[in-house]
Design goal:
Number of helices: 9
Radius of gyration: 19 Å
Structural class: alpha/beta
Shape: globular
Number of strands: 12
Largest sheet: 9 strands, mixed
Length: 342
């Protein structure tokens, strides 16, 4: 697991020279090494603490690790006795972090996805993703497809016998939302027998990192209100994650742009696109939704009013702020309804 340590617990300083830095999050050295020690406000550190797996139910969920390449983490809801053996869908999760930071074991993901698993109900399978700049795109997309192939190989695993591999919904936060689009397109371009019995039934990008080289109006006018998403992070993380020399107009970050394959030629399942009203990338997320709609895709839109980027991962705000708490409930309900319809 990736553990994030506070600044005061750092090892002796790296003798190499810092060549790039994202405030609070990472430093890149001239020898190619990367230090992801958290140097921001210490009160945020608990959200990045890894949660250990557990087999005794907590709030109706057990948590399991499935080691392999890639490593998978499974949130498994406890079944009602009157379920009649009906199998539950699978939410296949890609964490965010601008392709450069974050880990599937972090508490911020655990708090939301354990709750979501119980509410739908669904088995949530979270993929451990490679990180840039050590692993630039398309490494993350490759890992996503490899994760689906692992899910295929685990279809008869005792822990997954209650899950339906023919109803897999890709879901991702922020940069993980980008992966929902690209992994879905990859999966649906494969011959059917490559993934069978796994079938991608839908995609749920939540506040995806879809951008373009020119600033959108929301990027220019909205003020970031979270240390987990700023314009500096947006720009620098993508510069470290995109192929060398690529701009934000690259299809990985602008699938609705001129450089990307025409959306009407890309096979995709039904999508639910979740957008936050106060998100810096709100307008480009809406551009993506409109481009999908014009291309004739089966796509739904949820706009969460009065909240910002990945608000639902901020546990204190979810618990203490009435608006954040209510919008989180609405998001969970929208996801559950979308899954039930498909």
């Amino acid at each position: 697991m990736l553990a994030v340590t506070p600044k005061e617990q750092q090892q002796p300083s790296n003798p190499a020279v810092v060549v790039d830095e994202v405030s609070g999050w990472l430093r890149v050295f001239d020898d190619g090494t990367v230090d992801r020690t958290w140097t921001g406000p210490p009160e945020a550190l608990f959200l990045m603490a890894p949660v250990a797996p557990y087999s005794e139910p907590r709030d109706g969920i057990t948590l399991h690790d499935l080691p392999g390449d890639p490593h998978l983490r499974l949130y498994l809801p406890q079944r009602e006795e009157d379920s009649n053996g009906e199998r539950i869908p699978i939410l296949f999760h890609f964490h965010g972090g601008g392709f450069c930071i974050s880990h599937s074991s972090w508490r911020m993901y655990h708090e939301f996805y354990s709750r979501l698993a119980a509410a739908v109900p669904a088995a949530v399978v979270s993929v451990e993703l490679p990180l840039a700049p050590e692993h630039r795109l398309p490494a993350h997309i490759d890992a996503g497809l490899a994760g689906l192939l692992r899910l295929r190989s685990l279809a008869s695993h005792p822990l997954l016998l209650s899950a339906d591999p023919s109803r897999v919904f890709l879901i991702g936060d922020s940069s993980g939302g980008n992966l929902v689009h690209h992994v879905a397109a990859r999966a649906l371009s494969q011959p059917e027998d490559v993934l069978s019995p796994v079938r991608v039934a839908g995609g749920i990008p939540i506040h995806p990192g879809f951008v373009r080289s020119s600033r959108s109006r929301s990027e220019l006018e909205l003020k970031p209100d979270s240390l987990f998403f700023t314009l500096e992070m947006l720009d620098k993380f993508l510069a470290l994650a995109l192929p060398v020399g690529a701009t934000k107009d690259h299809p990985y970050t602008c699938p609705m742009g001129a450089a990307a394959p025409p959306l009407d030629e890309v096979r995709l399942p039904p999508f639910l696109v979740a957008v936050a009203e106060r998100d810096l990338v709100r307008d480009t997320n809406l551009e993506y939704y409109e481009a999908m709609r014009r291309a004739g895709k089966e796509v739904e839109l949820l706009v969460s009013d009065g909240v910002s980027h990945t608000f639902y991962l901020n546990k204190p705000a979810v618990e203490l702020d009435p608006v954040t708490g209510e919008r989180t409930k609405e998001l969970i309900q929208a996801i559950a309804d979308f899954v039930r319809r498909h």
